[in-house]
Amino acid sequence: MGQTITEKIFSEHVGEEVYAGQIVRSPIDMVIGNDITTPISIKAFEESGATKLANPDGFSIVLDHFIPAKDIASANQARISRDFASKHNLKHFFDEKDMGIEHALLPEKGLVIPGDVIIGADSHTCTHGAVGAFSTGMGSTDLAFAMVTGGNWFKVPESIKVVFSGKPGEFVTGKDLILEIIRMIGVDGALYKTLEFTGDTIEYLTMDDRFALCNMAIEAGAKNGIVAYDETTQKFLDERIEANGSLRAEPKIHFSDEDATYCQILEIDVASLEPVIAYPFLPENGHPMSQAVADNIKVDQVFVGSCTNGRLSDLKIASEILDGKKLASHVRMIVTPGTQMILREATKLGYIDKLVDAGAVVSNPTCGACLGGYMGILGDDEVCISTTNRNFVGRMGSRTSKVYLSNSAVAAASGISGYITDPADRKSVV
After folding, report:
1. What is the three-class DSSP state of 172?
2. Which distant-in-sequence residues (6+ apart) come within 8 Å of 366 by Cβ?
């Protein structure tokens, strides 16, 4: 009986063939915490009586939501993680000295690799499926159990096979592909299922595209998103070895069998797809670019960043669109690079100068604006076009504000005109 890539990853970890629907106890290769969720995990860990981490080299804490601290409460929250990391001499602890948003930083550091089982107390942990790993979000106490035992219990998810066909248009990205899927099946259309991304379109997708694609699998309710290893993955891993000296461990490569069982198959013609704009107040409220232009939607703020679209390619396309231009007089723009390395590389390549010259503010790597914490909170009735992953009521600030989700090219073009704008329409962004 054929297996999906997700079934094979769990089979390799538990030492026998397993299939969708089975309950398994699996070792975990990497546990990821952040400054919001980790203190809860630490408390549960200590209350258990444990004194040592089961797999200290497979545990990482990334302070990214409210760092540098925005207030006394966040400072005290961060201190709990800092003290724990110091006490346990944690190898993979990332603070202000080496900053980054966790789902951008961990791949950059070579700490998530193909074939891994990865959990994090953050719903967007599914991002790491882009490297061919099983990666999912769990609760803080689930993390504590993994910290104590080195593993956890999972129900092996059924898989939805997503078949993308055709070459994407110039301004169609991984973000648009996942927004289209969510538009099709809704925010609970893949509840506790794997979204396995396949098809000839995959060869055209960069790793940044794939990270964005898997990042928002949770917005369709999915347990995980995953893309199988290929030459693009290998090139990315080689770059990580060059940058860091090595990967955390040797990759374990798995591919779905041709006769694997899927609970659903989705087919999407990418060649005919426009950029997708998710209107308030759900990511499933997707509309084609042409509809958004016709609706003449005025924006007050542009945001480029987050664990979804804060990578180097996002800063590149935004800077190219904004090069030599200025933001509309009523528009402010915030750019948040995913990591310090991305910020440094973008500076070296001239992207940051172009963004600042256009009128943008560039912040440190942080999740702050995305969840309405700081560094870009929206006021009453304000409208933001954002490259983040959620647009729920009050997500980025006031409960009367509105957030439209888009890719980075659309966001940048909209900043120039002051209205949601198609980046392909050069006349509107001159």
Report:
1. coil
2. 64, 65, 66, 67, 99, 101, 336, 374, 375
- Whether the CA torsion 338, 341, 344, 347 is positive or negative: it is negative
Fold of the 5-268 domain: Aconitase; domain 3 (3.30.499)
CATH class assigned to 277-429: alpha beta
**CA torsion angle for 47, 51, 53, 57 (degrees, to 10)?**
140
Phi, psi of 221 (to 5 degrees): 85, 5
Q: What single letter denotes the amino acid at residue 339?
A: T
Alpha carbon distance 307, 366 (integer Å): 9
The proportion of the chain whose per-residue pLDDT surpasses 70, expressed as a percent, equals: 99
Which stretches within 254-370 are classed as H helix?
Answer: 289-295, 306-309, 312-322, 340-348, 351-358
Q: Are 149 and 25 in contact (CB under 8 A)?
A: no
311 Rama sector, left if φ>0, alpha if ψ -120 to 50, beta otherwise: beta
One fold for both 5-268 and 277-429? yes
Q: Using DSSP, state whether 46 is helix, strand or coil.
A: helix
> How buried is residue 255: exposed, middle or buried, by Cβ count under 10 Å (0-12/13-18/19+)?
middle
Tens of pLDDT, residue by residue over 223-258, are 999 999 999 999 999 999 999 999 999 999 999 999
Mean pLDDT of 87-106: 94
pLDDT given for residue 426 in this prediction = 54
User: What tokens were used for 212?
Assistant: 């964005």
Helix (H, G, I), strand (E, B) or coil at 390: coil
Beta strand 276-278 with 286-288: parallel, antiparallel or unpaired?
antiparallel
CA dihedral (118, 120, 123, 125) positive or negative: negative
Q: Exposed e or buried b for every residue in 53-79, given b needs 16+ CB within 10 A?
A: bbbeebbbbbbbbbbebeeeebeebbe
Q: Helical H runs in 72-131?
A: 72-87, 102-108
Distance between CA atoms of residues 430 and 420, nearest Å: 14
Cα–Cα distance list, 295 to 6, 11, 51, 200, 427 (Å): 41, 50, 59, 33, 18
Q: Which residues of 365-381 are buried (b: 16+ CB within 10 A; e: fewer)?
A: bbbbbbbbbbbbbbeee
- Cα–Cα distance list, 11 to 18, 31, 125, 199 (Å): 5, 19, 21, 24
Other CB atoms closer than 10 Å to residue 3's CB: what's the count?
23
Domains of the chain, by residue range, sit at 5-268, 277-429
